[in-house]
């Protein structure tokens, strides 16, 4: 047995290094009678980078499903879905940032993406929980109360995390500098989504407690509460104008004392024809007598007494 050592120049790119490994392994594979292999520690990292997209996607999907399940234990399913969707969008933005900076999806960037899910979910969950317990008859009122209650605390939490990781910017290690860049991006995006995106979505489709808001906050429901109990509205939502057959109803004087429920009707057209004076008569002082005459006759007839004559 013997060993043959020779030196090769390794590429700085892991993808290129992996292709070199495959080429050397193919050459050695042709010599089946020789038990030989090719090894360099850089090939291990190259293999990790090769398998990282599939491995990373599987882990990110599992982490997102776990986050949704755990949040559902404490918050409504709709808020859990909104929060999970928010952090997934943040990870997608971070993937775009990684590509824009010329970085590869390796162990460092994947760990940072997994940490981003855990860091960014806090802001969305805090807003969601504050929305659930906030008072308010409508979604917008609940969102306003939630932001007023927890908004300043969320800003303080984000600021403290940014200050706590600021020292990583002075590191000379590429690993820590990448970690610093992605963590700061995660906190910033989580703060923007927690204070901007999630409240907007909750104000539009946020859940309402059916026991406290049986009619929701729709305009039609609020209009129904304002309407009188006996009023009826046509399908168009507007009351029809009075017609010529409409009549006004007057309570008899005797009903005040007898508490009777019967009414009597006086047709508007008949009253107008029998005695309502015109504007000219009113100016001459005869309009009051003309109006009083038919009303007095009707009231006297209802009471069973002869009507007094009116000149």
Tag the structure with descriptive keywords.
311 residues; mainly alpha; two-stranded antiparallel ribbon; 11 helices; disordered C terminus
Kindly state the number of beta strands: 2
Distance between the termini: 145 Å
Largest sheet: 2 strands, antiparallel
Helix content: 55-70%
Average pLDDT number: 74
The percentage of residues in β strands lies in: under 5%
Shape: elongated
Radius of gyration: 41 Å
Helix and strand run: HHHHHHHEHEHHH
* pLDDT < 50 runs, ≥5 residues: 216-237, 242-294, 305-311
| Helical run tally | 11
In what order do the strands lie side by side in the largest sheet?
Answer: 1-2
Judged by helices, strands and strand pairing, the structural class is: mainly alpha
